[in-house]
Specification:
This protein folds into two domains: 29-54 and 334-458 and 483-511, Aspartate Aminotransferase, domain 1 (Alpha-Beta Complex); 61-332, Type I PLP-dependent aspartate aminotransferase-like (Major domain) (Aspartate Aminotransferase, domain 2), CATH 3.40.640.10. The chain is built from 15 helices and 14 strands. It has helices at residues 3-8, 46-49, 58-70, 82-93, 108-125, 146-151, 155-159, 176-179, 186-204, 231-242, 294-302, 317-332, 335-354, 390-400, 427-444; strands spanning 25-29, 32-35, 40-42, 99-105, 133-137, 169-171, 209-215, 245-249, 273-276, 288-293, 360-366, 369-374, 407-408, 507-511. The chain has a seven-stranded mixed beta sheet, sandwiched between helices. It has a four-stranded antiparallel beta sheet with strand order 11-12-14-13.
Protein backbone atom coordinates (compact mmCIF):
# COMPACT_ATOMS: atom_id res chain seq x y z
CA UNK A 1 0.00 0.00 0.00
CA UNK A 2 1.12 3.55 -0.71
CA UNK A 3 2.94 4.84 2.41
CA UNK A 4 1.06 8.14 2.45
CA UNK A 5 -2.26 6.34 2.13
CA UNK A 6 -1.30 3.85 4.85
CA UNK A 7 -0.43 6.67 7.25
CA UNK A 8 -3.62 8.60 6.51
CA UNK A 9 -5.84 5.51 6.69
CA UNK A 10 -5.19 3.57 9.92
CA UNK A 11 -8.53 1.78 9.50
CA UNK A 12 -9.06 -1.01 6.97
CA UNK A 13 -12.68 0.13 6.62
CA UNK A 14 -13.36 2.10 3.45
CA UNK A 15 -15.01 5.10 5.10
CA UNK A 16 -16.91 7.80 3.26
CA UNK A 17 -13.76 9.90 3.17
CA UNK A 18 -10.13 8.78 3.04
CA UNK A 19 -9.12 12.19 4.34
CA UNK A 20 -11.13 12.26 7.54
CA UNK A 21 -10.68 10.65 10.94
CA UNK A 22 -13.91 9.60 12.61
CA UNK A 23 -14.55 9.25 16.34
CA UNK A 24 -15.70 5.77 17.34
CA UNK A 25 -19.27 5.55 18.60
CA UNK A 26 -19.57 2.95 21.36
CA UNK A 27 -22.96 3.53 22.97
CA UNK A 28 -26.32 5.20 22.46
CA UNK A 29 -28.45 6.71 25.20
CA UNK A 30 -31.75 8.27 24.16
CA UNK A 31 -30.96 11.36 22.10
CA UNK A 32 -27.21 10.98 22.63
CA UNK A 33 -24.40 9.07 20.96
CA UNK A 34 -21.26 8.46 23.04
CA UNK A 35 -17.77 7.98 21.66
CA UNK A 36 -14.80 6.02 23.05
CA UNK A 37 -13.56 8.97 25.04
CA UNK A 38 -16.92 9.25 26.79
CA UNK A 39 -17.96 12.40 24.96
CA UNK A 40 -21.69 12.76 24.39
CA UNK A 41 -23.17 14.11 21.13
CA UNK A 42 -26.76 15.30 20.81
CA UNK A 43 -27.92 13.34 17.76
CA UNK A 44 -30.03 16.22 16.50
CA UNK A 45 -30.47 14.83 12.99
CA UNK A 46 -31.16 11.21 13.99
CA UNK A 47 -28.17 10.27 11.89
CA UNK A 48 -29.59 10.51 8.37
CA UNK A 49 -33.11 11.12 9.71
CA UNK A 50 -33.37 7.55 11.00
CA UNK A 51 -33.42 7.10 14.80
CA UNK A 52 -37.00 8.20 15.45
CA UNK A 53 -37.23 6.60 18.92
CA UNK A 54 -33.72 7.43 20.00
CA UNK A 55 -31.00 4.96 20.88
CA UNK A 56 -31.31 1.88 23.11
CA UNK A 57 -35.09 1.92 23.45
CA UNK A 58 -35.87 -0.97 25.82
CA UNK A 59 -39.01 -2.19 24.04
CA UNK A 60 -37.21 -2.49 20.70
CA UNK A 61 -34.15 -4.17 22.19
CA UNK A 62 -36.36 -6.68 24.01
CA UNK A 63 -38.20 -7.54 20.79
CA UNK A 64 -34.90 -8.07 18.99
CA UNK A 65 -33.50 -10.30 21.72
CA UNK A 66 -36.69 -12.35 21.72
CA UNK A 67 -36.53 -12.82 17.96
CA UNK A 68 -32.88 -13.91 18.08
CA UNK A 69 -33.77 -16.46 20.74
CA UNK A 70 -36.37 -17.96 18.39
CA UNK A 71 -34.99 -17.57 14.85
CA UNK A 72 -32.17 -15.53 13.36
CA UNK A 73 -32.68 -16.15 9.61
CA UNK A 74 -34.75 -18.06 7.09
CA UNK A 75 -34.51 -17.52 3.33
CA UNK A 76 -37.74 -16.22 1.82
CA UNK A 77 -37.68 -18.69 -1.07
CA UNK A 78 -38.41 -21.41 1.52
CA UNK A 79 -40.23 -19.78 4.43
CA UNK A 80 -42.16 -16.82 5.70
CA UNK A 81 -41.83 -15.80 9.37
CA UNK A 82 -44.16 -14.60 12.10
CA UNK A 83 -42.19 -11.37 12.34
CA UNK A 84 -42.61 -10.55 8.64
CA UNK A 85 -46.30 -11.46 8.63
CA UNK A 86 -47.02 -9.39 11.74
CA UNK A 87 -45.17 -6.37 10.36
CA UNK A 88 -46.98 -6.71 7.04
CA UNK A 89 -50.34 -6.75 8.85
CA UNK A 90 -49.34 -3.69 10.88
CA UNK A 91 -48.31 -1.68 7.84
CA UNK A 92 -51.31 -2.56 5.67
CA UNK A 93 -53.74 -1.86 8.53
CA UNK A 94 -52.43 1.71 8.71
CA UNK A 95 -51.67 2.33 5.02
CA UNK A 96 -53.34 4.96 2.85
CA UNK A 97 -55.75 4.03 0.07
CA UNK A 98 -56.14 0.41 -0.98
CA UNK A 99 -52.69 -0.96 -0.23
CA UNK A 100 -52.79 -4.74 -0.03
CA UNK A 101 -49.21 -6.06 -0.05
CA UNK A 102 -45.79 -5.22 1.43
CA UNK A 103 -42.43 -6.12 -0.10
CA UNK A 104 -39.60 -5.99 2.44
CA UNK A 105 -36.07 -4.88 1.57
CA UNK A 106 -33.06 -3.62 3.52
CA UNK A 107 -33.29 0.14 2.96
CA UNK A 108 -34.57 3.06 0.93
CA UNK A 109 -32.46 2.64 -2.19
CA UNK A 110 -33.41 -1.04 -2.42
CA UNK A 111 -37.02 -0.03 -1.92
CA UNK A 112 -36.93 2.41 -4.83
CA UNK A 113 -35.30 -0.20 -7.05
CA UNK A 114 -38.02 -2.69 -6.16
CA UNK A 115 -40.77 -0.13 -6.81
CA UNK A 116 -39.36 0.70 -10.25
CA UNK A 117 -39.26 -2.98 -11.17
CA UNK A 118 -42.74 -3.60 -9.77
CA UNK A 119 -44.07 -0.74 -11.87
CA UNK A 120 -42.38 -1.98 -15.03
CA UNK A 121 -43.54 -5.56 -14.53
CA UNK A 122 -47.08 -4.34 -13.79
CA UNK A 123 -47.40 -3.03 -17.33
CA UNK A 124 -45.75 -6.11 -18.83
CA UNK A 125 -48.31 -8.26 -17.00
CA UNK A 126 -51.03 -6.06 -18.52
CA UNK A 127 -49.68 -6.57 -22.04
CA UNK A 128 -48.07 -3.13 -22.38
CA UNK A 129 -44.35 -3.93 -22.70
CA UNK A 130 -43.54 -0.71 -24.59
CA UNK A 131 -43.84 1.38 -21.44
CA UNK A 132 -40.32 2.33 -20.40
CA UNK A 133 -40.11 5.93 -19.15
CA UNK A 134 -39.99 7.10 -15.55
CA UNK A 135 -40.51 10.76 -14.74
CA UNK A 136 -39.22 12.41 -11.56
CA UNK A 137 -38.23 15.91 -10.42
CA UNK A 138 -35.02 17.87 -10.42
CA UNK A 139 -33.58 18.39 -6.94
CA UNK A 140 -35.06 15.12 -5.74
CA UNK A 141 -33.18 12.28 -4.09
CA UNK A 142 -34.29 8.66 -4.31
CA UNK A 143 -31.17 6.69 -3.39
CA UNK A 144 -27.66 5.83 -4.52
CA UNK A 145 -28.12 2.54 -6.37
CA UNK A 146 -28.05 2.93 -10.16
CA UNK A 147 -31.80 2.81 -10.79
CA UNK A 148 -32.59 5.13 -7.90
CA UNK A 149 -29.78 7.48 -8.89
CA UNK A 150 -31.05 7.55 -12.47
CA UNK A 151 -34.46 8.89 -11.51
CA UNK A 152 -33.06 11.18 -8.81
CA UNK A 153 -32.60 14.85 -9.60
CA UNK A 154 -29.49 15.64 -7.55
CA UNK A 155 -27.15 16.62 -10.36
CA UNK A 156 -23.90 16.37 -8.41
CA UNK A 157 -24.59 12.82 -7.27
CA UNK A 158 -25.50 11.83 -10.82
CA UNK A 159 -22.57 13.47 -12.60
CA UNK A 160 -19.84 10.87 -12.00
CA UNK A 161 -22.09 7.96 -12.98
CA UNK A 162 -24.10 9.66 -15.74
CA UNK A 163 -22.67 7.49 -18.56
CA UNK A 164 -24.01 4.31 -16.96
CA UNK A 165 -27.38 5.60 -15.72
CA UNK A 166 -30.58 4.52 -17.44
CA UNK A 167 -32.30 7.39 -19.26
CA UNK A 168 -34.95 9.16 -17.20
CA UNK A 169 -37.08 12.27 -17.46
CA UNK A 170 -37.35 15.19 -15.05
CA UNK A 171 -39.63 18.15 -14.41
CA UNK A 172 -39.24 21.14 -12.12
CA UNK A 173 -39.62 20.69 -8.34
CA UNK A 174 -42.28 22.40 -6.26
CA UNK A 175 -39.94 24.89 -4.59
CA UNK A 176 -41.98 27.97 -3.72
CA UNK A 177 -39.15 29.89 -2.04
CA UNK A 178 -37.37 30.21 -5.38
CA UNK A 179 -39.98 29.27 -7.96
CA UNK A 180 -43.26 30.97 -7.01
CA UNK A 181 -43.91 34.25 -8.79
CA UNK A 182 -45.02 37.30 -6.84
CA UNK A 183 -48.35 37.37 -8.71
CA UNK A 184 -49.14 33.70 -7.92
CA UNK A 185 -51.04 32.13 -5.06
CA UNK A 186 -49.55 28.94 -3.61
CA UNK A 187 -52.35 26.98 -5.27
CA UNK A 188 -51.68 28.55 -8.69
CA UNK A 189 -47.95 27.91 -8.35
CA UNK A 190 -48.56 24.26 -7.42
CA UNK A 191 -50.87 23.82 -10.39
CA UNK A 192 -48.36 25.39 -12.77
CA UNK A 193 -45.43 23.17 -11.81
CA UNK A 194 -47.63 20.07 -11.53
CA UNK A 195 -48.84 20.62 -15.08
CA UNK A 196 -45.28 20.07 -16.25
CA UNK A 197 -45.96 16.38 -15.63
CA UNK A 198 -48.91 16.45 -17.99
CA UNK A 199 -46.81 18.13 -20.67
CA UNK A 200 -43.96 15.65 -20.22
CA UNK A 201 -46.27 12.63 -20.49
CA UNK A 202 -47.81 14.04 -23.67
CA UNK A 203 -44.32 14.70 -25.05
CA UNK A 204 -43.20 11.13 -24.40
CA UNK A 205 -46.51 9.53 -25.29
CA UNK A 206 -48.61 8.18 -22.43
CA UNK A 207 -48.33 4.68 -23.89
CA UNK A 208 -44.58 4.84 -23.21
CA UNK A 209 -44.62 6.13 -19.60
CA UNK A 210 -44.52 3.80 -16.61
CA UNK A 211 -44.68 6.06 -13.56
CA UNK A 212 -44.08 9.40 -11.91
CA UNK A 213 -41.86 9.27 -8.81
CA UNK A 214 -41.76 11.96 -6.10
CA UNK A 215 -40.95 12.56 -2.45
CA UNK A 216 -44.13 13.69 -0.71
CA UNK A 217 -42.13 16.21 1.33
CA UNK A 218 -38.76 16.80 -0.30
CA UNK A 219 -35.93 15.66 1.93
CA UNK A 220 -32.29 14.91 1.21
CA UNK A 221 -31.79 17.44 -1.59
CA UNK A 222 -34.17 20.38 -1.17
CA UNK A 223 -34.44 20.10 2.60
CA UNK A 224 -37.95 19.67 4.06
CA UNK A 225 -39.92 21.42 1.30
CA UNK A 226 -43.68 20.95 1.61
CA UNK A 227 -45.78 20.63 -1.55
CA UNK A 228 -48.09 23.49 -2.50
CA UNK A 229 -51.80 23.03 -1.74
CA UNK A 230 -53.43 20.81 -4.33
CA UNK A 231 -50.10 19.87 -5.91
CA UNK A 232 -50.35 16.11 -5.34
CA UNK A 233 -54.07 16.03 -6.09
CA UNK A 234 -53.21 17.43 -9.50
CA UNK A 235 -50.55 14.73 -9.94
CA UNK A 236 -53.08 12.05 -9.04
CA UNK A 237 -55.52 13.43 -11.63
CA UNK A 238 -52.81 13.52 -14.33
CA UNK A 239 -51.57 10.00 -13.58
CA UNK A 240 -55.11 8.60 -13.59
CA UNK A 241 -55.97 10.30 -16.87
CA UNK A 242 -52.90 8.92 -18.62
CA UNK A 243 -52.97 5.55 -16.81
CA UNK A 244 -49.52 6.19 -15.32
CA UNK A 245 -48.57 4.88 -11.87
CA UNK A 246 -47.83 7.27 -9.00
CA UNK A 247 -44.90 6.18 -6.82
CA UNK A 248 -44.29 8.15 -3.63
CA UNK A 249 -40.94 8.08 -1.86
CA UNK A 250 -41.52 8.47 1.89
CA UNK A 251 -38.18 7.01 2.93
CA UNK A 252 -37.27 10.20 4.80
CA UNK A 253 -40.52 12.09 5.32
CA UNK A 254 -42.72 9.14 6.26
CA UNK A 255 -43.39 6.96 9.30
CA UNK A 256 -44.49 9.80 11.56
CA UNK A 257 -41.83 12.41 10.88
CA UNK A 258 -44.34 14.91 9.49
CA UNK A 259 -47.03 14.36 12.13
CA UNK A 260 -49.03 11.66 10.32
CA UNK A 261 -47.83 8.11 9.86
CA UNK A 262 -47.57 8.75 6.14
CA UNK A 263 -46.93 12.27 4.86
CA UNK A 264 -49.34 11.72 1.96
CA UNK A 265 -52.25 11.61 4.41
CA UNK A 266 -52.18 15.41 4.46
CA UNK A 267 -52.51 15.52 0.65
CA UNK A 268 -55.82 13.71 0.44
CA UNK A 269 -54.68 11.10 -2.10
CA UNK A 270 -53.10 7.66 -2.17
CA UNK A 271 -50.27 6.42 -4.42
CA UNK A 272 -50.12 3.17 -6.34
CA UNK A 273 -46.75 2.28 -4.80
CA UNK A 274 -45.05 3.79 -1.77
CA UNK A 275 -41.53 3.28 -0.43
CA UNK A 276 -40.69 3.37 3.30
CA UNK A 277 -37.45 3.01 5.26
CA UNK A 278 -35.46 5.02 7.85
CA UNK A 279 -38.14 5.60 10.53
CA UNK A 280 -39.70 2.25 9.68
CA UNK A 281 -37.07 0.47 11.74
CA UNK A 282 -35.69 3.49 13.58
CA UNK A 283 -32.09 2.43 12.91
CA UNK A 284 -32.29 -0.74 14.99
CA UNK A 285 -31.85 -2.95 11.92
CA UNK A 286 -31.61 -2.28 8.18
CA UNK A 287 -35.12 -2.43 6.70
CA UNK A 288 -37.25 -0.83 4.02
CA UNK A 289 -40.58 -1.66 2.45
CA UNK A 290 -42.63 -1.12 -0.68
CA UNK A 291 -46.39 -0.89 -0.23
CA UNK A 292 -48.36 -1.96 -3.31
CA UNK A 293 -52.01 -1.25 -4.03
CA UNK A 294 -54.57 -3.94 -4.77
CA UNK A 295 -54.89 -2.56 -8.31
CA UNK A 296 -51.23 -3.18 -8.98
CA UNK A 297 -51.22 -6.61 -7.39
CA UNK A 298 -54.31 -7.72 -9.32
CA UNK A 299 -52.29 -7.56 -12.55
CA UNK A 300 -49.66 -9.89 -11.04
CA UNK A 301 -52.34 -12.25 -9.78
CA UNK A 302 -53.94 -12.48 -13.22
CA UNK A 303 -50.55 -12.76 -14.94
CA UNK A 304 -47.38 -14.57 -13.95
CA UNK A 305 -48.19 -14.72 -10.25
CA UNK A 306 -44.68 -13.74 -9.23
CA UNK A 307 -42.44 -10.69 -8.89
CA UNK A 308 -39.14 -11.09 -10.77
CA UNK A 309 -36.96 -9.68 -8.02
CA UNK A 310 -35.38 -10.65 -4.70
CA UNK A 311 -32.55 -10.21 -2.20
CA UNK A 312 -30.85 -12.57 0.23
CA UNK A 313 -31.80 -10.61 3.32
CA UNK A 314 -35.27 -9.40 2.35
CA UNK A 315 -37.84 -9.91 5.08
CA UNK A 316 -35.11 -10.65 7.61
CA UNK A 317 -36.85 -11.75 10.83
CA UNK A 318 -34.63 -9.66 13.13
CA UNK A 319 -35.23 -6.50 11.08
CA UNK A 320 -38.96 -7.17 10.88
CA UNK A 321 -39.19 -7.76 14.64
CA UNK A 322 -37.34 -4.50 15.32
CA UNK A 323 -39.53 -2.52 12.91
CA UNK A 324 -42.69 -4.00 14.37
CA UNK A 325 -41.61 -2.92 17.87
CA UNK A 326 -40.84 0.59 16.60
CA UNK A 327 -44.21 0.94 14.89
CA UNK A 328 -46.14 -0.39 17.87
CA UNK A 329 -44.32 2.04 20.15
CA UNK A 330 -45.25 4.96 17.89
CA UNK A 331 -48.89 3.93 17.99
CA UNK A 332 -49.22 2.85 21.62
CA UNK A 333 -47.49 5.95 23.00
CA UNK A 334 -49.44 8.30 20.69
CA UNK A 335 -46.20 9.78 19.39
CA UNK A 336 -47.77 11.17 16.23
CA UNK A 337 -49.69 13.65 18.34
CA UNK A 338 -46.42 14.48 20.06
CA UNK A 339 -44.82 15.18 16.68
CA UNK A 340 -47.56 17.64 15.81
CA UNK A 341 -47.37 19.39 19.17
CA UNK A 342 -43.61 19.54 19.40
CA UNK A 343 -43.35 20.42 15.71
CA UNK A 344 -45.31 23.62 16.30
CA UNK A 345 -43.05 24.48 19.24
CA UNK A 346 -39.94 23.74 17.20
CA UNK A 347 -41.00 25.96 14.31
CA UNK A 348 -41.95 28.76 16.71
CA UNK A 349 -38.60 28.60 18.51
CA UNK A 350 -36.65 28.43 15.27
CA UNK A 351 -38.51 31.47 14.02
CA UNK A 352 -37.87 33.33 17.28
CA UNK A 353 -34.16 32.52 17.19
CA UNK A 354 -33.38 32.71 13.48
CA UNK A 355 -36.05 34.58 11.52
CA UNK A 356 -34.19 37.88 11.80
CA UNK A 357 -30.80 36.37 10.97
CA UNK A 358 -29.36 38.10 7.88
CA UNK A 359 -28.34 34.75 6.35
CA UNK A 360 -31.54 32.77 6.98
CA UNK A 361 -33.64 32.86 3.84
CA UNK A 362 -36.30 30.30 4.74
CA UNK A 363 -37.41 28.17 7.69
CA UNK A 364 -39.73 25.44 6.53
CA UNK A 365 -41.04 21.94 7.01
CA UNK A 366 -43.91 19.91 8.43
CA UNK A 367 -44.20 18.38 11.87
CA UNK A 368 -40.71 17.63 13.10
CA UNK A 369 -39.25 17.52 9.60
CA UNK A 370 -37.76 21.00 9.33
CA UNK A 371 -35.11 22.77 7.29
CA UNK A 372 -33.33 26.10 7.06
CA UNK A 373 -32.11 27.63 3.82
CA UNK A 374 -29.07 29.86 4.22
CA UNK A 375 -28.39 32.72 1.83
CA UNK A 376 -25.74 35.40 1.45
CA UNK A 377 -28.43 38.08 1.12
CA UNK A 378 -32.02 37.74 2.31
CA UNK A 379 -33.53 40.44 0.14
CA UNK A 380 -32.24 39.05 -3.14
CA UNK A 381 -32.09 35.40 -1.97
CA UNK A 382 -28.54 35.33 -3.31
CA UNK A 383 -26.85 32.02 -2.43
CA UNK A 384 -23.50 31.88 -0.68
CA UNK A 385 -20.43 31.72 -2.87
CA UNK A 386 -19.75 27.99 -3.26
CA UNK A 387 -16.09 28.61 -2.42
CA UNK A 388 -17.05 29.42 1.18
CA UNK A 389 -17.98 25.75 1.87
CA UNK A 390 -20.17 26.95 4.69
CA UNK A 391 -21.85 23.59 5.20
CA UNK A 392 -18.54 22.00 6.20
CA UNK A 393 -17.81 24.80 8.64
CA UNK A 394 -21.18 24.48 10.29
CA UNK A 395 -20.99 20.70 10.55
CA UNK A 396 -17.47 20.83 11.97
CA UNK A 397 -18.25 23.51 14.52
CA UNK A 398 -21.53 21.92 15.57
CA UNK A 399 -19.83 18.57 16.15
CA UNK A 400 -17.09 20.30 18.11
CA UNK A 401 -19.85 21.66 20.35
CA UNK A 402 -21.42 18.21 20.71
CA UNK A 403 -24.26 18.68 18.23
CA UNK A 404 -24.77 16.40 15.21
CA UNK A 405 -26.53 18.10 12.30
CA UNK A 406 -27.32 17.08 8.74
CA UNK A 407 -25.86 19.77 6.47
CA UNK A 408 -25.94 19.85 2.71
CA UNK A 409 -24.40 21.89 -0.05
CA UNK A 410 -22.19 21.43 -3.05
CA UNK A 411 -18.73 20.06 -2.30
CA UNK A 412 -17.73 23.70 -2.03
CA UNK A 413 -20.86 25.25 -0.50
CA UNK A 414 -22.40 25.21 2.96
CA UNK A 415 -25.47 24.43 5.04
CA UNK A 416 -26.79 23.94 8.57
CA UNK A 417 -29.47 21.72 10.04
CA UNK A 418 -32.31 22.13 12.48
CA UNK A 419 -33.56 19.60 14.99
CA UNK A 420 -36.82 17.83 15.50
CA UNK A 421 -38.05 15.38 18.11
CA UNK A 422 -40.30 12.37 17.92
CA UNK A 423 -40.37 10.93 21.41
CA UNK A 424 -42.38 12.59 24.14
CA UNK A 425 -40.67 14.81 26.75
CA UNK A 426 -41.67 16.84 29.71
CA UNK A 427 -42.25 20.50 28.86
CA UNK A 428 -39.11 21.64 30.62
CA UNK A 429 -36.82 19.17 28.86
CA UNK A 430 -38.47 19.78 25.52
CA UNK A 431 -38.03 23.49 25.77
CA UNK A 432 -34.42 23.18 26.83
CA UNK A 433 -33.56 20.81 24.01
CA UNK A 434 -35.20 22.99 21.38
CA UNK A 435 -33.67 26.20 22.70
CA UNK A 436 -30.17 24.78 23.00
CA UNK A 437 -30.25 23.17 19.56
CA UNK A 438 -31.52 26.32 17.87
CA UNK A 439 -28.89 28.34 19.72
CA UNK A 440 -26.13 25.96 18.60
CA UNK A 441 -27.23 26.29 14.99
CA UNK A 442 -27.28 30.05 15.31
CA UNK A 443 -23.80 30.14 16.87
CA UNK A 444 -22.49 27.81 14.20
CA UNK A 445 -23.82 30.12 11.49
CA UNK A 446 -21.40 32.82 12.67
CA UNK A 447 -18.54 30.84 11.22
CA UNK A 448 -18.62 32.36 7.74
CA UNK A 449 -15.54 34.47 8.38
CA UNK A 450 -13.72 32.15 10.82
CA UNK A 451 -10.85 29.83 9.97
CA UNK A 452 -11.66 26.14 10.09
CA UNK A 453 -11.09 24.42 13.41
CA UNK A 454 -9.78 21.33 11.67
CA UNK A 455 -9.15 21.81 7.95
CA UNK A 456 -8.34 18.14 7.44
CA UNK A 457 -11.74 17.04 8.70
CA UNK A 458 -13.44 19.75 6.67
CA UNK A 459 -12.75 18.09 3.33
CA UNK A 460 -16.09 16.89 1.94
CA UNK A 461 -16.66 13.12 1.98
CA UNK A 462 -16.55 13.00 -1.81
CA UNK A 463 -13.05 14.41 -2.12
CA UNK A 464 -11.61 17.74 -3.19
CA UNK A 465 -13.80 20.46 -4.59
CA UNK A 466 -14.54 20.55 -8.28
CA UNK A 467 -14.10 23.77 -10.27
CA UNK A 468 -16.97 26.17 -9.70
CA UNK A 469 -17.75 26.06 -13.41
CA UNK A 470 -18.35 22.31 -13.37
CA UNK A 471 -21.59 21.33 -15.07
CA UNK A 472 -23.24 18.22 -16.39
CA UNK A 473 -24.98 17.77 -19.69
CA UNK A 474 -28.33 19.17 -18.53
CA UNK A 475 -26.87 22.53 -17.63
CA UNK A 476 -27.56 21.93 -13.94
CA UNK A 477 -24.76 23.01 -11.66
CA UNK A 478 -23.21 20.00 -10.02
CA UNK A 479 -23.91 20.01 -6.29
CA UNK A 480 -24.47 17.75 -3.31
CA UNK A 481 -22.95 16.04 -0.32
CA UNK A 482 -23.76 12.40 0.41
CA UNK A 483 -24.40 12.89 4.11
CA UNK A 484 -26.47 16.04 3.75
CA UNK A 485 -30.11 17.01 3.62
CA UNK A 486 -30.27 19.56 0.86
CA UNK A 487 -28.50 20.57 -2.27
CA UNK A 488 -27.21 23.51 -4.06
CA UNK A 489 -28.28 22.73 -7.59
CA UNK A 490 -31.12 24.56 -9.23
CA UNK A 491 -33.33 23.50 -12.12
CA UNK A 492 -32.64 24.78 -15.61
CA UNK A 493 -35.13 27.33 -16.84
CA UNK A 494 -38.25 25.85 -18.33
CA UNK A 495 -41.28 27.75 -19.64
CA UNK A 496 -43.42 26.53 -16.78
CA UNK A 497 -41.04 26.60 -13.85
CA UNK A 498 -39.61 30.09 -13.94
CA UNK A 499 -36.50 28.75 -12.20
CA UNK A 500 -33.00 29.32 -13.52
CA UNK A 501 -29.58 27.85 -13.07
CA UNK A 502 -26.94 29.86 -11.25
CA UNK A 503 -23.24 29.43 -10.66
CA UNK A 504 -23.80 30.19 -6.99
CA UNK A 505 -25.86 27.63 -5.18
CA UNK A 506 -28.54 28.00 -2.51
CA UNK A 507 -27.71 26.43 0.81
CA UNK A 508 -30.42 24.41 2.49
CA UNK A 509 -30.56 22.41 5.66
CA UNK A 510 -32.81 19.81 7.17
CA UNK A 511 -32.54 17.64 10.24
CA UNK A 512 -34.33 15.42 12.71
CA UNK A 513 -33.85 14.55 16.32
CA UNK A 514 -35.73 12.41 18.71
CA UNK A 515 -35.84 12.86 22.44
CA UNK A 516 -36.01 10.23 25.10
CA UNK A 517 -39.21 10.03 27.10
CA UNK A 518 -38.98 11.89 30.39
Amino acid sequence: MNDALQKSTPSHVLHRSLRQSYPTAVRGDGVYLIDKSGRRYLDASSGAAVSCLGHSHPAVLAAMRGQLDRLEYAHTSFFTTDAAEALGDELIANAPGEMSHVYFVSGGSEGIEAALKLARQYFVERGEPNRRHFIARWQSYHGNTLGALAIGGNAWRRAMFAPILAPSQHIAPCYAYRGQRTDETPEAYGRRVADELDAKIVELGCENVIAFVAETVAGATLGAVEPAPGYFKRFREICDRHRVLLILDEVMCGMGRCGTLHAVEAEGIAPDLMVLAKGLGGGYAPIGAVLASSGVMEAFDRGSGMFMHGHTYMGHPLACAAALAVQRTLREQNLLENVRTQGKRLRARLAARLSDHPHVGDIRGRGLFCGIELVADRASKTPFDPASRLHSRIKSEAMHRGLLVYPMGAPWTAAAATTSCLRRLSSSKSGTSTRSSASSVRRSMRLCQRPLRNPRNDIPPHGPAQPQSARIRDGISTAGLESGACSGQRSPRSPASGQTQDSKEPVIASGMKRVREA
